């Protein structure tokens, strides 16, 4: 039977992909872009199966707001448990302490608590997801793989050089420079000074879309911060735009730098 319109185009594109991994990734992408609109029951079921297969596995967040004795770790299972998929968690605190399952919720990955209450909604790719909790806090989960666990730990760039450089300078940053920006008092927002030309992104992950590029020596207002394996990410306000900025980067694939500090002015 010939499938017409957007559904037919999506089916033909997926069907022409020979490599299973590419096919699975394409299905997941189609789900995210189409919002399931116009898909038949069988196509929807196949897409959900592919989505579950792609995102099942072990994930963790390093944010202390969600972690207890160690990093909050969750295992997303492909096994169905009534109207949701099974989930196991360890070392989780705050809102993540009550996780009981996961499901596709409004075309996002939803982490569920008691009575299927949505604790957090996440989006992203098969290695890193970011999103919001029900209370509005940002959380980043990163995949933990057997290969990553078995491989020798990579040498941190700062260990190789003995220095994380202060922006584009030859001066080493201090531990204070690498800390999250904090407010001077409870009634004001934290501020940060951007030290380098820096992209602000729509989500707290490197592959998220760029919403603005901030020039060096700019002071920005910080709304919130979160922590991932690549350091702190903070949500900055630039004029009437908000975006996530990464506090540490590597310049020219060699020199580790701090991109902004909590000192402003």
UniProtKB/TrEMBL annotation:
InterPro entries listed in its UniProt record: DUF1058, Protease_inh_B-barrel_dom
The species this protein was found in: Aurantimonas marianensis
Classification of source organism: Bacteria, Pseudomonadati, Pseudomonadota, Alphaproteobacteria, Hyphomicrobiales
Example GO molecular function: endopeptidase inhibitor activity
Pfam families reported in the protein's UniProt record: SH3_4
Entry protein name: SH3 domain-containing protein
